Structures are given as C-alpha cells and as structure tokens.
Prior knowledge:
Shape: globular
Strand content: 25-35%
Number of strands: 26
Strand order of the largest sheet: 2-1-10-9-11-12-13-14-15
Radius of gyration: 23 Å
CATH superfamily of the largest domain: ANL, N-terminal domain
Number of helices: 18
CATH architecture of the largest domain: 3-Layer(aba) Sandwich
Structural class: alpha/beta
Distance between the termini: 59 Å
Low-confidence stretches: none
CATH topology of the largest domain: Rossmann fold
Number of domains: 2
Mean pLDDT: 88
CATH class of the largest domain: Alpha Beta
Amino acid sequence: MDPKHIGHGLISGSRYISSDELRLRSSQAATALHDLGVWQGDRVALLLRNDIAFFEATMGASILGAATVPLNWHMTPDEIDYVLEDCEAKVVIVHADLLNEAVLAICTGREVVVVDTPPEVASRYEHQKTTQLAESLPRWDEWVGSFAPWDREVRQVTGPMFYTSGTTGKPKGVKRLPIGPDAIKAVQARAAIAFGISDGDVRSVMTGPLYHSAPNAYAMQVVGEGGLLVLQPRFDPLDLLRLIEEHRITNLHMVPTMFVRLLGLDGDDKRRYDLSSLKNVVHGAAPCPADVKRAMIEWWGPVIHEYYAMTETGFIAISNSHEWLQHPGSVGRAAPGVTIETRRDDNSRCSPGEPGEIFVRSEVTGHVAYHKAEEKTAELRHGDFVATGDIGYLNEEGFLFISDRKTDMVISGGVNIYPAEIEQALIGMPGISDCAVFGVPHPEFGEQLVAAIQPKSGASIDAENVREYLDGRLANYKIPQIIKTCPDFPREDSGKVKKHKLRGILFSKAAA
C-alpha cells in the first residue's frame, strides 16, 4: 500500500493499525485489565517505549476510569520502585527489552504483562536479553486478543498521571480532579488550537517519547481526532525528513533540541526530501534560542508554532510564526480560556514589562493536585490560580516573556531535571562537605547540568569519581556533565547556598 494513501490510525515500522482496529483492541484491553482487578481510580504503570501497545493500554485503562502512569525508562530500578509504590500501581506493562531481574524484583506483588519489543524499536536500542521468568508472564498481544470487547459502562476519563519532581527532589504524581463536561470540551478545544490539530486530516510523526506529558497529550489528540500517527522509535533528524515526504506529514510536535539537530544536517540532506506538506509544527517544553527559531522559519516557512505549558496546568500561552517574529523571544499570548498574571512578592499584580512570578487560571487550575502531597498542592494552588514557579513579564500587547525560573529546575533537551534530587544523592559521597547543582546554557540542549562540589578538608574530589558514584543511583540524564570544585560556597545568612552567585564565581573566567 502507498504510504501516502494509508488512512487514519497508527504506523510503527511495517505495522499499521486502523482507528477502528485500535478502538477494538483498546476495548479488549479494558476487559483484560479489569480481569486483573483494575477499576475506577486504579493505576496502571507503563514501562514502554513508543509502540502501538502504549495506546491500547492507555485507551483501555481510560475506558475503566483508571489512570496510566507512564514511566521514564531511563530511570533506575530504585526510581521506578518509588513511583510504583507511591501511585500504588496494580499492573505494570513493560517492553521485553526493559524487563530485567531488578525490574522484576520491584514489581513483586503486582501483575506484570510483557509487550514483545517490535523489531523497529529493538533496532534503535541496545536490545537486552529477557530473563527466563519473563517468558512465563502474559504477552500483551495474545493476552489482550483472548478477551472480548468491553460491553459495560465506560467510566469517567481521568487521563494519565505523570510524575514530576519538585524542590524537595521527590517525584510527585500530578492528577486532575474531575471536571464538568463543559470544562472538558473547553480543555479539548484549547489543546486542538495549541497543537494545531482541528480535524481528522492530520498526518503526524511522534518524534518524542510518550512517557513525557506533552508528546503523550499530542499523540492522544491526533489519535482522538482520527488522524494518522507514525511512531518514530527514537528521534533521528534525517529519518524524520524521510517520513515527512513518505507519509505527506502535515503536523509535528517537537522540542528545540530537535530543531538544532535538523539544522545540523548538511545542505544536500536538507534539500533531499519534499517537506511542502507541512502545515503546523508546534514546539514547547524548553526555551528555543532565537537564532534557531529564525533558521527553522526560514527553512520550513511560517509553519512553526510555539506553546508554553505545565504538566499541572496544561496550555498557558501560544503563538504562531508571525507573532513570534513581531515579538521575538515571547512564548505567546494567553491561550483561549486562560488568564495570565504576573505578581510581585506581595501578591500585587505587576505592570506591563515588570517581571514577576507567573500565575495562571483556567477551567482546570482549581482541580489540579499532587498525589499524596497536600502541602505541595497548597503551595501550587492560590484560589483558582496556579503558581508556575517561573518569572516573566507581559508586554503591553499581552505577550508573555519568560525571564527566569523561581525554582531551580533545569530543562535539558526538553526534559525537566530537578537539582535537589541530584544534590540529595551527591551529598552522601565520601569527601563531599556540600554540593549545589544548577543549569548553564547549552547551544543544543538549552541547558546542561553543573555540579559544584565543596570538598571536605583534605579531601580530593575527581569529576570521574563523582560520575561513577552517581551511576546507578540516578538516571544517566540526571548526572551532571560539568563538575567543578569550590572551596567555599557563597551563602545566605540562613546558610542556603546562593546559586546565582556561585554560578558567577565558577564561570566568570569563561564568561570573560
């Protein structure tokens, strides 16, 4: 079949499943999960790469009113164990190449279903050998196929629960409390506008991992609108250009790091494929350098759109190419149904152009909460508004500019990384008196991690030893790329490290 003429549904490698077949499989998955005891309010953990089974499981759990908990498969077994315990997952669905003895051990007491890793996914990763125990577990395709479609009432949809860390360094599950049907319609309409997805003629490639909230929401929106979604197991810039031409792709969801890698292709590769089918390419998750965005608009035309959002709130601001070129550096204006305020420390509203903490209000902000974290929920919600933790300003025309982050969160390659979690792991290393982790600019990833080490008297700290110490304690993407020592940290009177001043001390020579 000509790829350009494949209808609505999902494509992964040589596999294709139509929208109707996907709905049937999801209905069977609901029955299968219910047979394992899953019901309204329960949670199903997904340790899966980008695959058709990810959609079947998510949609099947949704039919039951259960929430999926997508797990970042870069996490260590201890990190995964914490999330499984915190969310009280009843079932874990895992790709065969991600299932090892350590993962099996932390799944004790939970039902485990194995998804055979398809060849198009296995070829992009180091395929691990599965244990003998894995062979005795249910295999997703056959297991789901053995059940009849769900024929009972469809429960209220709650959506996936994503885990995001905070200033304490402990991951928190973000959950949405029930909202009314009118609010649901408003949220869906806002997502369609922000993502540039408004009808079933959408043809897209999923470039990012589905365990992240934004790619996940985008993918489900495309499928929900009856579009065609091609799953890219792992982002590859040249392969993406091939897929755009082959499938006449109209829409994409990307992060700035992907733009950098696309722009890094040589001229012949950039001209090799026909990209004229593109209509809406939306990016978010991290700040995009102005020169990178201008270069993408020059190459692909005014199809580049941007959004600013949080896992907790959903979409906050949106902009198109023309608006960004008129207000370079802006993340856009308030999305439909969203109110944006910038506030001073005394909670009074800032004037146009005056930086302050960004607060937002929409249909969902009064209904968002952190799982088992009432204090953190109280810090997040201020009446119907939510505090983003970001610092920015609104200009006279209502365009929002992000100038800094109130929290210490680092965004590297579109991934949120929280220094407190790294600091907690690092402070246990022998020879370390204190440590501070923060981000510094990086031309490709937006930011990269820096660990500043204050050694104990007489101790010698080697950067490679630090990395070896963190290896296995943290996921690889959380291990700082730059490690520097400093004999004395600048501190507040309370003893808290002044990270901005420390950053200046460590990098003043480089800046000069």
